[in-house]
Design goal:
single chain; 280 residues; alpha/beta; Cobalt-precorrin-4 Transmethylase, domain 1; Rossmann fold; four-stranded parallel β-sheet; 9 helices; 40% helix
């Protein structure tokens, strides 16, 4: 069995920055909290927890100390709460996510009904929604009814969605007829590069493995895109989750990983695949 790795995979600059900033903050401050998991990778979250980073879901749980804003960002309300409690704030929000927040604010100020195409339960989207006053989230075509009564729309997208999905949803919105649409492309170029590389690879292998946390939106999207082109696509967190029976009769295996997947997870998986192959 030959093992191939996608041309682009793993940590993106935003995730690297968040982890680096987290470690630096832990060295400089005694009590450090993360408002939600710093990134969507359980191993990294556990490692930072061992170093002293406490993860909490609410500002109400923090009386004093330093709060690390995770890569997905925080709402204006949460930031106001932190300032009112005089907490020390360290911002690890991805610069691209911060850009989406600023665009949402600007569209709102210009009088647009802000439309975010994405998953309303994802922390990035929730932070964007909490950055402006007039925002609606479209998770699919069934949500188009939320736009009833609005004629002037400002449309943006969750950074980790695919261009094809963004385009598809824009087409459906246009079909509903609105007096004015302003569309800003807020897709992450790093995400697109990973998606393109993954799809390219999955088309030429017998089986495709997408490595990353099950709560990672960009990893799930990678797996979904690969599944569309290769039915033998599997989203795994690490080597331990692999059912070795899947490798029976396989000549070519492909590997890629989400933007929050550590290199050591990817390296171990590829090494174990090669080791398994040499034993057959």
């Amino acid at each position: 069995m030959k093992v191939f790795v996608a041309e682009k995979y793993g940590f993106c600059p935003g995730v690297k920055n968040a982890i680096t900033l987290a470690k630096k903050t832990l060295q400089e401050h005694e009590k450090v909290y993360s408002l939600g998991p710093i990134i969507h990778n359980e191993e990294i979250v556990n490692e930072l927890s061992e170093e002293g980073l406490e993860t909490t879901s609410s500002v109400d749980d923090i009386d004093k100390g330093t709060v690390l804003i995770r890569s997905h960002g925080a709402t204006l309300k949460q930031l106001d709460q932190m300032r009112s409690r005089e907490l020390n704030i360290v911002d690890a929000t991805c610069v691209l996510v911060k850009r989406v927040q600023k665009i949402a604010q600007k569209l709102d100020e210009e009088g647009y009904k802000v439309v975010v195409i994405g998953d309303e339960h994802h922390p990035e989207v929730q932070a964007v929604v909490g950055s402006a006053n007039n925002v609606v989230v479209l998770g699919g075509q069934d949500d188009l009814c939320k736009l009833s009564g609005y004629g002037k729309l400002g449309i943006i997208c969750q950074t980790t969605q695919s261009p094809d999905y963004f385009t598809e949803m824009l087409g459906k919105i246009i079909e509903h007829g609105f007096s004015e649409l302003k569309v800003v492309n807020t897709l992450c170029s790093e995400t697109k590069r990973r998606q393109d590389a993954a799809v390219k690879l999955c088309k030429r292998v017998d089986i495709m493995f997408v490595l990353g946390g099950h709560h990672s939106a960009n990893t799930r999207k990678l797996a979904e895109l690969c599944k569309n082109h290769n039915n033998q696509t599997f989203h795994l967190q690490n080597w331990r989750e692999l059912d070795k029976r899947l490798l029976c009769g396989i000549d070519k295996a492909g590997v890629t990983a989400g933007a929050s997947t550590p290199d050591k997870v990817i390296d171990e998986f590829v090494a174990k695949l090669n080791e398994y192959s040499s034993q057959q």
